[in-house]
Amino acid sequence: MTTQTTAPDTPGARKADATGGLLPLPEKAARALALGGSVLTALSTFLAWTWTADFPGDLTVYGYPGGLQVLVLVGALLATLVALASYGLKGLRWLVPAGADPALRLATLAVFTTSWYTVLAISADLGGLVNLEPGGFLVALASLAALAGALSLPFRRPEPDPADPDDTGWAKTRHGLAHAWATTKAVFAADSPRPVRALPPYAEILIIVGVLALGLTVFTYGIGTEYDEQFIGFLITAGLGFAALNKAGLISHASQITARHQNITTCGAFVAAALFPFTQTDDQYATLGVYILIFATVALGLNIVVGLAGLLDLGYVAFLGVGAYAAALVSGSPSSPFDVHFPFWAAVLVGAAASLVFGVLIGAPTLRLRGDYLAIVTLGFGEIFRITANNLDGTSGPDITNGSNGVSSIPNLDVLGFDFGAQHDLGGYTIGRFANYFFLMLVITAVVVLVFRRSGNSRIGRAWVAIREDETAALAMGINGFRVKLIAFAVGACLAGLAGTVQAHVTYTVTPEQYLFAGPIPPNSAFLLAAVVLGGMGTISGPLIGAALLFLIPNKLQFLGNYQLFAFGVALILLMRFRPEGLIPNRRRQLEFHEDAEAPTLLTKAGA
Amino acid sequence: MTTDTTQGTAPDAAVPGATVLDARGVTMRFGGLTAVRGVDLTVGAGEIVGLIGPNGAGKTTFFNCLTGLYVPTEGEVRYRGTVLPPKSFKVTAAGIARTFQNIRLFANMTVLENVLVGRHTRTKEGFWSAVLRGPGFHRAERASRERAMELLDFVGLAAKADHLARNLPYGEQRKLEIARALASEPGLLLLDEPTAGMNPQETRTTEELVFAIRDMGIAVLVIEHDMRFIFNLCDRVAVLVQGEKLIEGDSATVQGDERVIAAYLGEPIENAPGKENDR
């Protein structure tokens, strides 16, 4: 790949072609068009796009943007900034450490996709293009112009592989497609970013604060989207915008800076997460927040088992269930056969301990297996838990779990006189029931993050990774494989149980059907595993982000109905094809990319 | 993990003649196939012993019997007078470290981390210690890192400590595997074809490395196909043919033995094996 893209020593005519743009426009005009288009798009968001308020978000107002217009405006401003930076403006050079053009292409693509999606959605919803106001046409044209301009900017074309003249029909088509794909990748391929200049510590911390604030804003906006079109627009803008920043090299800069101040970043992330309930006016979205947090915490626990120790556990949700059931049974619920009401700290201990015992009981016989066999056996044990909980109802077995009705009416927590079920006023903000639990869950998440980070970077963590990498060699290095794997399994189970104790109180009711292997509602074992794989195995932020996405997307795209799981499957396949390392690549993988930055891997991976 | 205190850090290498490894009548059968038949082998302290033989002679099987990967069907293996436990991690804890014929590094760990994994048997910090991070944890971790860096320095990889093991060139991967084995502070190091795939230059470096390891007081048992390497290196050489020990002795004896030449080349011809690599 690299050899193809380094300026080929071919005759002049071809050379000019090799650095031309995708569309035949002179470079200066193209750049001006991209900039002008972006500015015009930004301005057009202040116009009315449609005449009626029937389309959600009210796009009829002159003077200030609303709904999807805001997304287009944000994208257009980003594109404008990048376009200005591509002129080499002095103050904006920091924006594009890896070169402006690929970022500009993606940014204009983001604007174009969002605005055309909006315009088309308006036309489709209201029936015809007549429903568009001039502003709607203007934004469509302007964003198209910006994209056309960006695509006309010169890039290094990959040299076509000489086609076999004997090829006919299908073989020729395939060859043509392969070249088109290589060209598409080259259009968006970016150089490796300049190294970060050392900034004074306070500046770096300010940058971290800014990044976290941006993250919180994006997340809050996503969680608060009110209608389908807005959420889809949000996904488009956020996804492509993120890609643009990535190509600009800002993401890699930000991750380098955060890596220098890991503790500050972690604490800052928790502060940002704790601020989330204060951004919400009612408890509706805090509900989503707490469910996401439960899901994410369990996914992070699973990441110890799968990501670090490499034990594929397909029945992990059972441990969440054990914790939840244990906490529910001692919570004083009327449907619990045990007439006890433990204080919260005791319930947490009971839940975690029950999961730990369950984990060791399952782990001890099964961890002698490797790979696929282990996966199948854990899948079986996960189902055994659910079916057992279903049958311990007094008729098929002893009455412990109240069968398929589950343990219901679990009372709200009361810790040191703080009633989690009631609203509290905190400095002018009303903190509802779910927000209370959100804070509690945040503490549990912090514990899991702490355990993950500290154990991962220690003797035991290295032993886990060694077992994952090569079990025979690890044994030959003196690692007691069985014992080490059992510890990973038990720790993972214990952390899931910890989350389960809170989950029982949040959901009021614990039923066996909450702990399926696969189902439309997370958390279930399949979704947990998907969150880990999607986010990035072996990382902390990966499963958290993966879980947030996996919870939010099905939740927001209700209109997909029965096709939800199908869409989810397609998305997962695409992700595995184009970014197998997950959204947040592991530190080890980053190192891998970092080391041969000039080597072929960069180009092939950068296209993805 | 409970046995990790049995061997001290300093092998008492100064005593020449003390037997480190004593394998008696080791026989390994896989079903009807006898891969190794009644092999006796001793390795003394401060000695470098070579094990050669044609492909399929049972060298690696014998190695696996020594390191607990296989439990010998008959016979026993003693390390410093105690019979070896039948688990490979316990064997390592007892003081025998090995490298593999086909390199088995932890490819996605850094060079330093690979060596730190080798320190596993000589450290005790468990899960709780890692989570709570008391002063003892930091002390042990620092000591481990220092020792690992010393070892990397010893094999000449200190500058690459933060690289991923998979990104090292072949020769350095071999060296890293040796450093990782040394990290477990063994009294006996088993090297399985340490120079396979190396050029003469690298082979010579490895030779010096093995001598340096011997000078640290660690006995070395080495399987190799490169005859020049083995005869330069070893105090004693044992020849394994079809699972049985053919002859054992110093280089000259083995080199001159007609049966050895016959085993390798079929019949004695003018090319002495010392001039020619076997493959």
Task: Offer a concise description of the structure.
The complex is a heterodimer of chains A (608) and B (279). Chain A has 608 residues and is mainly α.
Walk me through the structure.
- The complex is a heterodimer of chains A (608) and B (279).
- Chain A folds into 3 domains: 2-159 and 192-256, no CATH class; 261-557, ABC transporter involved in vitamin B12 uptake, BtuC (Orthogonal Bundle); 575-608, no CATH class.
- In chain A, 64% of the residues lie in helices and 2% in strands.
- Chain A is built from 24 helices and 4 strands.
- In chain A, the strands form 2 sheets. In chain A, strands 1-2 form a two-stranded antiparallel sheet.
- In chain A, strand 1 (414-415) and strand 2 form a beta hairpin.
- Chain A starts with a helix and ends with a helix.
- Chain B has a 6-stranded mixed beta sheet, with helices on both faces.
- In chain B, a hairpin with a 2-residue loop joins strand 9 and strand 10 (244-249).
- The longest helix of chain B has 21 residues, at 135-155.
- Chain B is globular, with a radius of gyration of 19 Å.
Given this structure, which CATH class of the largest domain in chain A is correct? Answer: Mainly Alpha
- β-strand percent of chain B reads 15-25%
The overall pLDDT of chain A, averaged over residues, is 81
Point out poorly predicted stretches of chain B: 1-14
Proportion in β-strands of chain A:
under 5%
List key phrases describing it.
heterodimer, A: 608 residues, mainly alpha, ABC transporter involved in vitamin B12 uptake, BtuC, two-stranded antiparallel ribbon, disordered N terminus, B: 279 residues, alpha/beta, Rossmann fold, 2 domains, four-stranded antiparallel beta sheet, 10 helices, 10 strands
